[in-house]
Amino acid sequence: MREHSTRPAVREEIWDRFVDALDRAGQAGNAADVLTPTALHPDAPSGKRFGDLTRVDVGNLAAIAQSFGRRGDAVMAMWQHTQQKLRAQKRVRPRVDSAKLLTGRSSSDA
Q1: Nearby residues of 92 by Cβ (< 8 Å), 6 or more positions away
Q2: Taking the domains of the chain in order of start, what are their residue ranges?
Q3: pTM > 0.90: yes or no
Q4: Alpha helix stretches (DSSP H) within the chain
């Protein structure tokens, strides 16, 4: 029987848990809401929503992962997919008629 260790998680374990969380959330359609780990690396974008990361942030995460033998390209691919999905959601939202907001009437009612 294996006892649970009380040692702190190492970077590889933190990364693996992060990627697993991204994978599970991505399958459920909400990878954008996964928070980046806070104890991964001093240069990592800690505690930010995955969907709010910039290309530079994700590049840093990928480089950090590669520095300890993990595939950084997987998280880059997940981020690109998440960004495409977020952009598509923005395009689908209905346009607000600014004239209606100001006057209570639609511009087509004129």
Answers
A1: none
A2: 27-88
A3: no
A4: 11-28, 55-67, 72-92, 98-103
| Cβ–Cβ < 8 Å for 72, 62 | yes
The amino acid present at 67, given as its one-letter code, is S
9 confidence band (pLDDT: 50, 70, 90): confident
Whose tokens are 């990627």? That residue is 19
The answer to whether 25 and 33 have CB atoms below 8 angstroms apart is yes
- Predicted pLDDT of residue 1: 46
Burial environment of residue 85 by CB neighbours within 10 A (0 to 12, 13 to 18, 19 or more): middle
Kindly state the tokens that stand for 79. Answer: 């981020």
Query: Rounded distance, CA 56 to CA 86, Å?
Result: 18
- Give residues with Cβ within 8 angstroms of 27, minimum separation 6: none
Q: List residues bridging with 51 in a β-sheet.
A: none
> Which residue, among 56, 62, 57, 63, has the nearest Cα to 74 in the 3D structure?
62
Asked whether the beta carbons of 26 and 78 are under 8 A apart, the reply is yes
